[in-house]
Amino acid sequence: MILKILNDWFKRSNKIERLWLLAKIEFKLRYYENKLGLLWALLKPILDIVVYYVVFQIVIKQNIPAFASYLFIGLILWNFFVESTTGTIQILNTKKYLYEYSNMNKIEIYISTLLSNSIGFFFNFIMFLIFYTFLEKESTGLSIQNFWILAVFLNLFILSLGMSLILSTLYIIAKDISQIWIVLTSFLFFLSPIFFKLSTFKEALPSFDYGNPIAGIIINARHVMMEHLSPDFQLMGFDYAYAIFLLLVGVLFLNRLGSKAAEKL
Amino acid sequence: MIMENEIAITAKNISKTFHISEDSHNTVKHRLFNLFNPPKRKDIPALKITSLEIKKGECIGLIGRNGCGKTTLTKVLAGVYPTDTGYLKINGSTMLMNLGVGMSQELTARENIYVSGSVLGLKIKEVDKLFDVIVDFAEIKSFIDTKVKFFSSGMMARLAFSIAVNAGADIMFLDEIFAVGDMKFQEKAIRVFESSWIKGKTVILVSHGMPVIRQYCSRAAFMKNGQIEFFGDTAKAVELYTADNQ
């Protein structure tokens, strides 16, 4: 009995090592291969912020306090979501070598890729912390509530994993899912409170923060990082429910469609 | 009485049919525009209802003429293809091996060794220990940090073989692997195969070379038209295969 549990544990420990190994290699492939490397990954959100700052703070005067930080936290969360969904639609094609010749569980491929994206997110988040504490003039500093970001990020991770599973398995039977998803993400992007005032957003679309699973994540991240508040627990509950539901659908899709990947792709 | 944990693979009534449609209906657009014009489908029964049981540590030969379903059967038994019917239980990690596969072109030899080793169920420390052995065996010492896509096909095949030999999954499916490398490498491969694989590992050997099958396999399966016609004594299976080739 004890031996069996130990045995299982050892097996799992190989799995954790494997996930981390695959994530590291994925990260290296993504960021060390091109000339600017990691710098590019860090530069991208800053360039995005500059663009949105000019448009929404200088041209359209929204007067959101600490707008650059407001954008920063919203954009890095959003970028993680896009990279983990749009970026993984073809994952069963590009990572074919991992499952085509062995009975390795496919979900490990997804988790490792999302872990690799999480490393990228981590660097961006550190940048945000530095920016917010040292450079932002209207900063309110750090607080104990900041730790809630872990729960918010876990929510985003589950949501992205679920969507990634659904999209990449649909890709097996519908190759143009990527075009459809690009349209849907741009729709979601403009319907999430990333660069406009939350009150404007709520006025125009009442209770849409409950309809859009990404919106609540961004709202709560700002609560805990910038406003010294605890997260809106009702909203968080909703978003966790969305994420877990999508993950379950994703796993179902993986078992139904994903198992045919080796013969269909 | 055979204990449950002595069985490597149990397959009951497994089968596999491929559906091939003539024009590819694999986009949403195409599906919508052809809603009332379903594609012509062709069913290919690659593997008909089959049952078999493989014990741990056995070396099974799989023979039959081209197109008889050997590759499909190995892929189903390895858990790469899902079976359409029946029940399949695989105890342990599996690895399918044919010429130079199971590696990512984008990764270096070093990374591929670690990834493959890990997929085969080894821990990083175990791969560390095996690393030099694998590299020496594959004779690619000066190309460890070169991306595999720049390798020649021979180097690729040797690396894959070396990983498989030294790391090895619990159940190995070997599809014509003795065709890798020059004569010296082949001799080495056979030596290693005899010394380490025959003991302990479950091996399913697919080959058209009857001497190899006769020498290593305790049992053999002869396949014809997607069915296992005979499963048992190696000599009998080889005889059937030879007769089929006349």
The level 1 CATH classification of the largest domain in chain B is: Alpha Beta
- Cα shape of chain B: globular
Which regions of chain A contain 5 or more consecutive residues with pLDDT less than 50? none
> How does the helix and strand content of chain B classify structurally?
alpha/beta
Total DSSP E strands of chain A:
0
Share of helix of chain B, binned: 25-40%
Low-confidence stretches of chain B: none
- Write the element-wise H/E pattern of chain A from the N-terminal end onward: HHHHHHHHHHHHH
Computed Rg of chain A:
20 Å
Q: Can you name the CATH architecture of the largest domain in chain B? A: 3-Layer(aba) Sandwich
Number of strands of chain B: 9
Which structural class best describes the helix and strand composition of chain A? mainly alpha
| Helix-strand topology string of chain B | EHEEHEEHHHEHEHEEH
Oligomer: heterodimer
Q: Write the CATH homologous superfamily of the largest domain in chain B.
A: P-loop containing nucleotide triphosphate hydrolases
Primary descriptors:
heterodimer; A: 265 residues; mainly alpha; 76% helix; 0% strand; globular; B: 246 residues; alpha/beta; Rossmann fold; six-stranded mixed β-sheet; three-stranded antiparallel β-sheet; 8 helices; 9 strands
